[in-house]
UniProtKB/TrEMBL annotation:
Keyword rRNA-binding belongs to the record: no
Cell location: Nucleus
Entry protein name: Replication protein A 14 kDa subunit
Family membership: Belongs to the replication factor A protein 3 family.
Keywords from the named record: Nucleus
Primary localization: nucleus
GO cellular component, as recorded: DNA replication factor A complex; site of double-strand break
One Gene Ontology molecular-function label: single-stranded DNA binding
Organism: Chelonia mydas
């Protein structure tokens, strides 16, 4: 799979996955975020599976059970920040850290598989380069997070560009090799 970075690769959306099975592709999407689930304020520790968390001598009870998610994904709530201003983030992750979900410009979700667990938290818009698997997921070879602090990336406009690219392939010849 070392050849995934060599040569042209088509830019696709979720609706194009089935047409590109086994091929290297480029996919741009937003990391799927889920609304925060209320956690006890004052808890600056990661929630413990054994039942809540401790802050000093106080025991903070465990919140209500989290709902189950499809395809082996779990909801995970992390609490950080201060007692007065907690920072709650909830994200869809796989327990192994080797899967994440991106949504394209149409709001359709795509699962991205990694060969190694994530070593950083992902957020915002990400470009993934990889191969489409037989399960219509993307086996990621590399990814780049877009910096949205400078300017926001318009996924809907990007999706419109993808529609044009795929409607007129004669003007956007991906995967064509020249015989020089």
């Amino acid at each position: 799979m070392g050849d995934v970075h060599e040569g042209p690769r088509p830019r696709i959306a979720t609706s194009h996955l089935a047409q590109h099975l086994g091929q290297r592709v480029c996919f741009v999407g937003r990391v799927e975020k889920v609304w925060p689930i209320a956690a006890p304020t004052g808890c600056s520790l990661q929630l413990q599976a054994s039942g809540g968390c401790r802050k000093g001598s106080r025991h903070i009870p465990r919140p209500a059970p989290l709902p189950t998610a499809p395809i082996g994904l779990e909801w995970q709530t992390m609490a950080s920040g201060s007692r007065d201003r907690p920072n709650l983030r909830t994200r869809k992750i796989h327990p192994s850290g080797k899967l994440f979900i991106l949504s394209d410009g149409e709001g359709k979700n795509t699962t991205v598989e990694l060969s190694e667990p994530l070593d950083e938290e992902l957020s915002g818009v990400i470009e993934v380069v990889g191969r489409v698997t037989n399960q219509a997921t993307i086996m990621c070879m590399s990814y780049v997070q877009f910096r949205e602090d400078k300017s926001a990336f318009d996924l809907a406009l990007y999706n419109e560009a993808l529609k044009i690219i795929h409607e007129f392939p004669e003007y956007f010849p991906f995967g064509v090799t020249r015989n020089d």
